[in-house]
Amino acid sequence: MTTPRSRFRLPTEEVLRAREELVLDHFRDEVAQDWDATLATFPHPHYELIAQMTVHDGDRDVRRYYADTRTAFPDQNHEIIAVRHAVDAVIVEFWLLGTQRGPLGAIPPTGSRHRTRMTAYFVFDEQENLVAERIYFDQLTILRQLIAGLDLRRPSGLITLGRVLLGALRAGRVAPDPRLTRTAPPILD
Question: What Gene3D superfamilies does its record include (predicted)?
Fold first, then answer.
């Protein structure tokens, strides 16, 4: 039986350095689109996208998520702003960048580029396994930038705008994943 972690005591520097190295490898492998290496950073791949209230769980589901996002943004990249450590997580603030060349779910390609500030929590269990990447961002920031690149003086730009808005409305109808809505308050000392 393991003793629960104190929420006031950080792990050793050695543990923090190992976590950070794994997270930075994860970022590098995602940009390189080396999915085998990226997935190897988890014993069981698990992504939580809080803005969309969706979960991608397991190898097959996460690979589908990678394929979908890289179809939409084949040049997806990031710029790290800060890396912070918590008792059970590495927290990374970063800019996500990409040009929409393919559909983003129901949103058709706009050809526009976005640069969106995000925060990802890389959560570790008691055995120091990466168990989740939980990503926070504002979907409207991305959507606004994708629309801003459209030429609304041209009929094709107006048609694409209409399709983007319909796609965004359809995406908003997806029910939130209950694993993200059924939360319990923490037990505080």
Answer: 3.10.450.50
Does residue 4 surpass a pLDDT of 70? no
* Tokens 């939409």 belong to residue: 72
CA distance 58 to 141: 28
Give the predicted TM-score (pTM) of the model. 0.91
Task: Give the up-direction half-sphere exposure of residue 151: CA atoms within 13 A in the CB hemisphere.
Answer: 5
Backbone angles phi, psi at 80, to 5 degrees: -75, 135
pLDDT, tens only, 44-80: 999 999 999 999 999 999 999 999 999 999 999 999 9
Instruction: Specify the CATH number for 13-175; select among 3.40.50.300, 1.10.3210.10, 3.20.10.10, 3.10.450.50.
Output: 3.10.450.50
